[in-house]
Write a structure and sequence with these properties.
By secondary structure, this protein is an alpha+beta fold. Among the domains are: 77 residues, Dna Ligase, domain 1 (2-Layer Sandwich), CATH 3.30.1490.110; 66 residues, ATPase, substrate binding domain, subdomain 4 (Actin, Chain A, domain 4, Alpha-Beta Complex), CATH 3.90.640. It is 35% helix and 27% strand. The protein has 11 helices and 16 strands. Strand 7 and strand 8 form a beta hairpin. Helix 3 packs across helix 10, helix 5 crosses helix 6 and helix 5 packs antiparallel against helix 7. The chain is elongated and about 80 Å long.
């Protein structure tokens, strides 16, 4: 859950120069919101500061004024879910430095500063959920988590084609498309039967007809979320898709048709080593393409740690990548 909150304090000191302590106090003031016993505050993210009525200030440190205000975006999460995820990591012999909302991490890796400033929507299609985060004028304007993701597509395929879920995931990646009308009826694919003992030939068009309704539902939920939040007109830079299911053939076009926004696929740039990682058999590749978009959150966590973490405590530096972080709803060790 997320909410926008406002905080205000008087600037201390005889010279009325804004110090770090003033910034901390005003953010703490914005943090005072109703929080149930079942919720924890994950992030208090400043959107803009206001000094004596003058808005649009991103960094007020060192400026002079009498009254300091802040507009923030506060993100909350379910306490029990967070505690159980943390316990799982600790029992694995690892430590957790911080809990980070998954789309916030992904945005670090795939959005440019110009896109954030102009206004953009990042849609991260994970396994169980689709995460939406909206940036406007360089700060976060809206976040949400939608209860549908790539695993739902795989489950639909498993049921519709009567094949094991593991096989459904494989054929989704290798042969899937969200545009069944563009698939020739003569195209055939081999599908493992539910028994796991024999293979059968089916029309690829049939596969895509199973995939399209779920992806259509997903992008319509994104459209509805943007409309209800009033964010559609704040994002001239368009919509950026990332995550595994974003790589389905035709996803960009379908998303653009439904949301009426320009769409591109977002993936981490300037990251070496992914080609070696992706050779792990756990990942399914379509041809020789390296699906960098599935690593958006992992790479974003590293960048988040470098920018926001304590390098000494987190074992993070510009020369090493050994950082353990927890995301919602995914645990990642990078």
């Amino acid at each position: 859950k997320s909410i926008n909150s406002h905080g205000v304090v008087a600037v201390t000191g005889d010279e009325k120069e804004i110090k770090e302590s003033d910034i901390k106090r005003v953010i703490d003031a914005a943090r005072i919101i109703p929080v149930s016993a079942e919720e924890d505050i994950l992030h208090v993210l400043p959107r803009e500061f206001i000094i004596d009525g003058s808005p649009g200030i991103q960094d007020p440190l060192g400026m002079s004024g009498v009254r300091l205000e802040v507009e923030t975006h506060i993100i909350k999460g379910a306490s029990t879910s967070i505690q159980n995820l943390v316990k799982s990591v600790l029992r694995a012999g690892l430590s957790v430095d911080e809990v980070v909302l998954e789309p916030l991490a992904s945005s670090q890796a795939v959005l440019s500063e110009d896109e954030k400033e102009l206004g953009a929507v990042l849609v991260d299609i994970g396994g169980g959920t689709t995460d939406v985060i909206v940036f406007h004028e360089g700060s976060i304007a809206h976040t949400s988590v939608l209860p549908v993701g790539g695993n739902h597509v795989s489950n639909d395929i498993a049921v519709g084609l009567r094949t094991p879920v593991s096989e459904a995931e494989k054929i989704k990646i290798m042969h899937g498309s969200v545009l069944p009308d563009e698939i020739d009826e003569s195209e055939k694919i081999e599908v493992l039967a539910a028994s796991g003992k024999e293979r059968k030939k089916l029309s690829r068009k049939m596969l895509c007809q199973v995939i399209e309704p779920r992806m259509n539902e997903m992008f319509n939920l994104v459209k509805k979320e943007l409309d209800s939040a009033g964010s559609a007109d704040l994002t001239p830079a368009g919509l950026i898709l990332t995550g595994g299911a974003s790589l389905l053939e035709g996803s960009e076009r379908l998303a653009s048709d439904i949301t009426e926004l320009p769409v591109r696929i977002g993936e981490p740039d300037y990251v070496s080593g992914l080609s070696n990682v992706i050779d792990n058999p756990v990942y399914i590749k379509k041809g020789d393409t390296i699906p960098r978009a599935i690593f958006s959150t992992a790479v974003g966590l590293i960048e988040f740690a470098l920018e926001n973490g304590d390098a000494k405590n987190s074992n993070v530096s510009s020369n090493t990548v050994s950082y353990t972080h927890l995301t919602l709803p995914t645990i990642l060790r990078v």
